[in-house]
Amino acid sequence: MDAQYEPVIGLEVHAQLLTRSKMFCRCGTTYAGAAANTHICPICAGFPGVLPVTNAHAVELATRVGIALSCEIAETSRFDRKHYPYPDLPKGYQVSQYDLPLASGGSVTLGDGEESRRIGIVRVHMEEDTGRLLHRTAPNGTVYSLVDLNRSGVPLLEIVSEPEIRSAAEAREYVMKLRQILRYIGASSGNMEEGALRCDANVSVRPFGEYVLGAKVEIKNLNSFRMIERAIDHEISRQIQALEAGTTIEQETRGWDEAAGVTLAQRTKEYASDYRYFSEPDLPPLTVSADRLRDVLGKLAELPDARRARLVLQYGVTSDDASVLTTTRETADYFEAVVAHLDGRAPARLAAVWVTGELFRLLNRDALSITDSRVTPTLLAELVEMVHSGEVNRGSGRAILEELYESGGSPRGIATERDLTQISDTDALAPVVRTVLDNNPRAVGEYFSGKQQVIGFLVGQVMKATGGTADSATVRALLLRELSEQPAEGPVSQ
Known about the structure:
Blueprint: E1 5-16, H1 56-68, E2 72-73, E3 76-77, E4 80-83, E5 93-96, E6 103-104, E7 107-110, E8 117-128, E9 132-137, E10 143-148, E11 155-161, H2 168-184, E12 197-207, E13 217-222, H3 225-244, E14 252-257, E15 262-268, E16 278-279, E17 286-287, H4 290-298, H5 304-315, H6 319-325, H7 329-342, H8 348-365, H9 377-389, H10 394-407, H11 411-417, H12 426-439, H13 441-448, H14 454-465, H15 472-484
Parallel strand pairs: 13-14
Antiparallel strand pairs: 1-11, 1-12, 2-6, 3-17, 4-5, 4-16, 6-8, 7-8, 8-11, 9-10, 12-13, 14-15
Helix pairs in contact: 2-3, 5-6, 6-8, 7-8, 7-9, 8-9, 9-10, 12-14, 12-15, 13-14, 14-15
C-alpha cells in the first residue's frame, strides 16, 4: 500500500438470525439441500394482499446483538419499505429499517490491552433476506437465470460500522470478532459458506492528513474472510493507482472476481433517495420495553472478551491459552467442564495445555470441532490427573489421548491394557540404566570428557528401552548416580 494514502473502510455485515421460521411468515428457515421454491408461501413469495406478522424471536435475537455490541436499544423502532427492482426480490421492495433502527451506537474492540482498537457501530437494523439467483448456461450457450425463493424472508440483521477501519487485515479481524460474538450469544450460525454471514465493504482512499472522505466504492457479497481481505486490498490498490494516474474515482458498486483476483464494476452506487423509503404500512412499530430489555439482558451469555479475562484471573491460564480457549463458546464450556471434573486434583493450567495443545492437534488434523470429539471433559480430566500425579508420563498420556480420540475407552483402562503406567521404581529401572550405559560407551566417554548434554541422549535410550513409560526425572537421577560411581575411563559391566 502506498504510504501517501490512507484507506477508509466501513463494513455492512449481514447475518441471518437463528430462528425456526422466517421474518414475517411461518415458513421454515431450514432449507439447505431442499428443492428450489419448496419453503415458500404467499407472504415470502410476495403475493399481493397478504399480511406479514413480525417474528418475536427474531426481535429478541436482534436486541441481544444490540446489547452485546453496547448499542443503545430504541424503545420504539419501525420497519420501512426499501424499493429496488431485482428478480430475487419478488415484492419489488425489501422490508427493512431506515430512519428508526432497532439499535444504534456501540462498538467492536479489536486486539487486546494497549494494542486494542475500537471500531464504532453506526446502527444495527432488522430486515428480510432476499431470494437467490441461480445462473445457468443452456446447451446452445445462452446464459439464463432462475430464481429460488427459499431464502426469501429469512430474518436478517445488518450491522453497519463507522468508516474507522484502516486496512484489509483489520477488516478481516473485525468480521471475525463480530462472528465470534454472534455465535457466543446464539444469534447466528455465522456460517459464511452457507450464506448465513455476508459482508459488503465500502472502500475509499485519501491522502494522509486529509479529513475529507474520498469517493466510496462498495464491494458486494463477500462471503469468506479470505475474500474480504483480498477484495479490499485489491480495491485499495486500484483506487490509489487511479488517483496517481489522475483518474476520478466513481461512486459505484463492484463485485469481486475470486478467480481473477479483481473487483469489477456492476452499477452506479445508489443513494438512500434511490430506494424511495417509506414506512411499512402493514406492520406496527416495534416496542422494546424496559422490562423486556432487562429480560433479554438477563439471558445474555458471557461475551468472549469478558470470558477470556475471567479465565486468566480465575484459573491462572496464560493470556494466549485463554484466547484460544474462548475462540468459541463450546471450547470455553469444554475447558471449564474439564476443570470442574478435576476438582483441584490437577492445576487448571495443565488442563488448558492439554486442550489447546494435544486435543486441538488431533481435532485440527481432522478438521473437527470440539463438539465432534469423543474425548469428553470427564475423560480428559482423568487423563490430566494421571499425568499430573505421575501415574503416566506426558508421552504415554499423549498415546492414551490418541486412542481415546480414535476409539474411545477410559484413560486408566488404556494405560493398563497397553502397559503405559509410568515406572518410577528405582529398583526396576536400575538394571535398564546399567544396560544402557554398557551399550553406549562412546556417549559415556563424552560425558566424562565434559559434554554434560549427552545425558539427554542417555535418558532417551532408557525411555526407548522402557517403551516410553519410565519417569524421566527418576531415570536422569539414576544415570547421574551410576556415572558418579564409575571410574572416569568408562563403564564397568556388571
